[in-house]
Amino acid sequence: MNARLSALTLIVILIATPAYAVGMKEGQPFPLFTMADENNKMTDIGTLIDKPTIVYFTHNSCHYCTQIIVLLKRAEVKFGAKNIGIIGINIMAKDGKMVKSYKKDMGFTFPMFAGNRDDVLNTYKVNYVPVLVFMDSGKTVKRIIGHYIHEKELHGYIKEMLK
Amino acid sequence: MEFNIKAVSGLPGNMSRRAFLAGALSWLGYMMAKGHAFGAVAVPPESTDTRLKSLTYKIEYLTEFYTTAKETVKMWIPLPTEDAEQEITHLSIEAMYPYTLNRASDNSVVYIETSGIKKKGTCASVRYTVKRKAVGITLSDDVDVAKKYLKLSEWEKRDEAITKYAETIVGGETDPMRIGRRLYDGIIDRTAYVHELCSRGVSAIAFEDKSGRCDDFNAMFRTMLVYKNIPVKWEQGVMLPYRPVLKKKGTVEADCINSHSWLKFYAGGKYVPVDLSEAKRWPALRDFCFGRLTPNRIKFSTGRGLTLRPPQSEILNTFSYTHVEADEVPMIYGHNYRTFIKYELIRKEI
């Protein structure tokens, strides 16, 4: 138990790195797009942001991103899908096929969209993954995390967002 | 066969606490081995690293599956480049499925195509001995070959900010070697190194962010030099530990974080190797990394925007670890499969 706590404590220290996502700024509106979901249905993601929401940028080559998917799944259960929204954007996916495969493999139900488009990539300017963007229901960016995150830290941000 | 990395299998998806802890410790070990635990420069390379003439390793490159698959699975496993800087001997391959060896001058692969992954565990093991030499400036009078390195990839974006910066730094300098050094110093000075992220290596974003990993440093350098009409060759591989933390035997994960790139720019009949991100990470190596490369690396590919043999579903940004597709959709690294390099240092030449 002590070894486990020590390891987790070390991880908390290790994740204390700055965020990088210059296309989105805290206090500013979150750029909205109409994007393809896993069935290639085009959806305006703005219509999904009706409550405090986390937008998660990832892609298929990112090992640590898969761990964050696990944390997001658990957070959705803990805080309730009625209270927080989660939206994934796969910046490797050009259409719904990869999104569908990713959702099936990772076993989550929250929406994910194909984000490998010039307009999307140029606007969000996501050069790294993982990137987590927390926003209020007014679609204003509250916080951007551009690195791996520990579950306790994630829950702390969600609680802050729900206040 | 024994694989001590099995302890971290099954991490994502239905991750248990035990698996999470194993993964966390593995990650911690990796971070410490890379020399940046707690955000500090923990173990700088000793000056002996710059005096090494070559390192010879026995390598076992493992592609491991953590899930099964029913779809048609295609797999491209990188083979190390064979050239004057890197000698490969004793190549042998063990695979659970039939494979072909698709050699090319730049990007050679072991290719596997199978109707499903029926069993979790090691799918392919590629063994070889690699003698990696320290690299310096090399002579070449073939300007036509060099010219092909004037083409930017889709990730090397040249915008107004980048060109303006390059003009400011370069000024009236016309000598390619001195232009290279000015931009090398300029990029290293203005860019923070980030560790634990998978980067796309987009020059315009990295320039605006003033941060990046190896691919970002190199994308910026390449974008600026090509703008000044200087050819720049992109090389990609995996970095192995420096001597202070190098064990006789060890395992390095060949993933997007451990992947490493470096460049060679063409300056008046000479190819000049540069390793900007290593110069950033290890300030004592700054002068060394302009014109030389330490031998603790393996080169797997050349260029960006790659199409392999046979072609994969869409072009790859870079190629230094196994690419896998199921029904022509890239599988998820870390969830479906992972790749590891087990090394044994068998000779060092000083």
UniProtKB/TrEMBL annotation, chain A:
- Span of domain Thioredoxin: 24-163
Tell me where on the tree of life, at the top rank, the source sits: Bacteria
Signal peptide bounds: 1-21
Sorted alphabetically, the keyword list is: Signal
PANTHER family under this entry?
THIOL:DISULFIDE INTERCHANGE PROTEIN DSBE, THIOREDOXIN-LIKE PROTEIN HI_1115
Q: What is this protein called?
A: Thiol-disulfide oxidoreductase
- Give the source species: Candidatus Magnetominusculus xianensis
Automatic annotation (TrEMBL), chain B:
Q: Which Pfam families match?
A: Transglut_core (PF01841)
Name the Gene3D superfamilies on file: 3.10.620.30
| Stretches assigned to the Transglutaminase-like domain | 164-275
Segment forming the signal sequence: none
Q: Which residues form a coiled coil?
A: none
* Domain of life, per lineage: Bacteria
> What name does UniProt use for this protein?
Transglutaminase
